[in-house]
Specification:
This protein has about 90 residues and is mostly helical. It is built from 5 helices and 4 strands; from the N terminus they run H-E-H-E-H-H-H-E-E. The protein has one domain. The strands form 2 sheets. The chain has a two-stranded antiparallel sheet with strand order 1-2. It starts with a helix and ends with a strand.
């Protein structure tokens, strides 16, 4: 995962590939924990109709910029936990 290791922040395109009308930044370790939690919850609800718990967003905001590939894996695991079928290149409902 050399690509993910070179990231400074994570967008939806980084996670799923493809084109998004709005390629949201879903996680930026330079922002505050609170702001990242807000962003993750908002994007996940609006894009995937999934409401993450406080515990889930708390866990997702623990990754530093050197471990963004771990954020991607954890985010995909959260979506799967909520019944979404996801891959690195596409998502089905």
């Amino acid at each position: 995962m050399a690509y993910a290791e070179s990231l400074k922040f994570v967008t939806l395109k980084d996670i799923f590939g493809g084109q998004y009308e709005f390629n949201y930044v879903i996680y930026n370790p330079c922002l505050s924990k609170l702001r990242n939690e807000e962003i993750i919850k908002d994007v996940t609800k609006n894009e995937f109709n999934v409401i993450l718990s406080d515990d889930e967003t708390d866990e997702l905001t623990t990754f530093d910029r050197h471990h963004l590939h771990d954020f991607i894996d954890a985010y995909l695991a959260c979506l799967r936990k909520h019944g979404k079928t996801v891959t690195r290149t596409k998502m089905t409902y």
